[in-house]
């Protein structure tokens, strides 16, 4: 991997710079959010729950409050949105769960 560039597993692209502002802009983009939704909609519910549990565990280990979307059970209506909150684009992607960066 090239130093100074961030790779997005969901979109299969390298971002031009590895900065927080570039990642936030990418992660809030329409195409990225749709790619994240498509990825998770293709998983079995038990796989999604394992990913959510591993992300929750990472938050607990760091003493951080959990994102609001991770507190809802899987299948709780259709209002669960991926790509929102502080975890946007992080965790459980094609490369497996990742801890949030500080």
Automatic annotation (TrEMBL):
GO terms for molecular function: pre-mRNA 5'-splice site binding; zinc ion binding. Keywords: Metal-binding, Nucleus, Ribonucleoprotein, RNA-binding, Zinc, Zinc-finger. Residues 86-96 have a biased composition (Gly residues). Residues 6-38 form the Matrin-type domain. InterPro entries: Matrin/U1-C_Znf_C2H2, Matrin/U1-like-C_Znf_C2H2, U1-CZ_Znf_C2H2, U1_snRNP-C, Znf_C2H2_sf. GO terms for biological process: mRNA 5'-splice site recognition. The keyword Transport does not apply. It is found in: Nucleus. Residues 63-102 are annotated as: Disordered. It comes from the Eukaryota. GO terms for cellular component: U1 snRNP. The keyword Protease does not apply. Residues 63-72 have a biased composition (Basic and acidic residues). Component of the U1 snRNP. The U1 snRNP is composed of the U1 snRNA and the 7 core Sm proteins SNRPB, SNRPD1, SNRPD2, SNRPD3, SNRPE, SNRPF and SNRPG that assemble in a heptameric protein ring on the Sm site of the small nuclear RNA to form the core snRNP, and at least 3 U1 snRNP-specific proteins SNRNP70/U1-70K, SNRPA/U1-A and SNRPC/U1-C. SNRPC/U1-C interacts with U1 snRNA and the 5' splice-site region of the pre-mRNA. Interacts (via N-terminus) with TIA1 (via C-terminus); thereby promoting spliceosomal U1 snRNP recruitment to 5' splice sites. This is Matrin-type domain-containing protein.
């Amino acid at each position: 991997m090239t130093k100074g560039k961030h790779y997005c597993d969901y979109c299969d692209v390298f971002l031009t710079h590895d900065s927080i502002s570039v990642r936030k802009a990418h992660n809030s983009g329409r195409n990225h959010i749709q790619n994240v939704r498509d990825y998770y909609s293709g998983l079995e519910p038990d796989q999604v729950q394992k990913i959510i549990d591993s992300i929750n565990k990472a938050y607990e280990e760091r003493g951080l409050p959990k994102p609001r979307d991770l507190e809802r059970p899987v299948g709780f209506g259709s209002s669960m949105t991926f790509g929102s909150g502080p975890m946007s684009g992080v965790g459980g992607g094609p490369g497996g769960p990742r801890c949030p960066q500080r």
